[in-house]
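Morning run. Coffee first, then this:
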Amino acid sequence: MYQQLFTPMKIGKLEIKNRFVVPAMDSHYINEEHYFTNQAVNYYGERAKGGFGLIFTEFLCVSEEGLAEKTQAGIYDDRFIDMLSKITERVHENGGKIFAQLQHSGRLQGKGTTSLMPVGASNLPNPSNPQKVHELTVDEIQGIIQKFVDAALRAQKAEFDGVEIHGAHGYLLAQFLSKDVNKRVDQYGGNITNRARIVCEIVEAVKNACGQDYPVVVRTSGDEGYVGGNSIEDAMVHAMCFENAGADAIHISYGEAIRSYYVKSGFNIENVKRVKEVVSIPVIGVGRINDATLALSAIRSQAMDFVALGRQSICDPHFPEKVQGGRLDEILTCTGCMQRCLYTNMFEEGYGTSCMINPFSGKEGDWVIEKTDHVKKIAVIGAGPAGLQAAWVLAKRGHQVTVFEKESVAGGQYRLACVPMMKQDLAKTISTYLTFCHKYGANIQYNTSVTKEFLENKDFDEIIMACGSKPVIPPIEGIDHENVYSALDILSFKHLLKDQKVLVLGAGLVGVETAEVLAEYGNSVHVVDMLDQAAPLAPKRPRLNLLDHLKQLHVEFTLESKVLKINQDGIVYEKNNQLETLSHFDTIVLAFGSKSNQDLYQKIKNEHIHLIGDASKAGDAKKAIFEATQLALKL
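And here it is:
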């Protein structure tokens, strides 16, 4: 069925072995001297090993004043060639092709990256980080074009198979392309073709310098995604201009490149198809494509020629290999959570980009599953994500593993996390972990409540407690009223509420997502908490999407308020040292957070019993899966 995804296709005269592409994404495996680290070599090499036909590097800056980050990789000096050559060598050894993405930030220059003044198509500052911008003169534009050419020549010396000119995501060339930012009145501004002139001249100049057979791709946004920005009609015209200038392929992205689970999978496919209809060169498409059949449909419908799997390639670097081998049930599916692939302050110390559900991503060459010399009999208590992750890794290492789960199905509270709208992909995590458990021989026993006596009779060498957490129930007067339920009761639909007035106590992530589910079922929902903002620990973009949706659902918030008493139809609370009341509610839902479930551990703890995930300290799945993996690799 998937054979078409593995048919070769050429970009220019370069043949790519299949239709799978890794687009440019920041890996965070770069130091402050703007060199890739050795881990970057492993990172890129693994994706070639996993079967991706073509890989684009993350953005490589062509000039110092164009740096976006303190740790952005550079290609603006010959000193970078040796390190870049190590990446191309590894990718080629593993059977892939790799292009260097050439970029200049323009007015999006990163804070603290350089003492040089940012430059732009116009002098309009970046609204989110206003600073003075020097509008490039016509002569200075020629200098910028030459910097892209010099960078392309360095890429060629480093044995990159081609280059990609970055004209998307608000950076310098996108600033020229954008009717919102480009306010020039000379030959580089005004009409739509003039706005494309600098990119076209870069394409022509690179071709003249590197040879007409050296592949050049242009990446641009199919839609900039905001009022006043470029639309798909602009992208279609620009794509035709790029082809006419000699570009060998067009790569269609979107204004905001990284989208959370609130955006549907394949959201950009129609934009890509519109561009493909007006050019004759290959078109690469990207946009939350995280499923093999979705990728195939994009190719079969002639929406695109190559499928770029962004966050999905971080989540599972062996996606193509698994599709080709018919191992679809082993694919780790990107959920769009952004937990460990985007926000650097969420990475564990010493590492860059990784994945919540696949912490091996980014640890290539460091975390290796090796067969054990001492086979142990190991019990795992709990079949949530932490327990299942530990179980399959241990089983693959050769240990005898049994998972005990008190429920009739696996997943624990993680299974409830997929209940809110647009989070359904979380369920695939559990099904994939179960596939690995079956493949490597980890036994799972459901409907089994484990006691101290039960474990003592089984003679296990090691016991892993992955029992999760339990809700915090504070000693508030009235908390035992019959119309008071826990958030977990609501998310598991033990109690179905419809067309009621509901008060949710707790504005953490669980509380606000419970409010979202309740509002989706037609309830009028009001959320109360001592916090000064809702879901403060959630990743930024999914959080903003969530809050926007809650606003659309008319969910109300009363924050910085302490609940003192629960009445039959509401609460008494304190705000600004004043007592207040909320009343006339049908139901009250508790979402005060969670605490570790260590009941069994306290009865039998010893050096052979290990706590992971929420059983160790209540947190999130990112922490739980990471801890489970660490433990399984060392036992």
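The chain is about 30% helix and 20% strand. Good start to the day.
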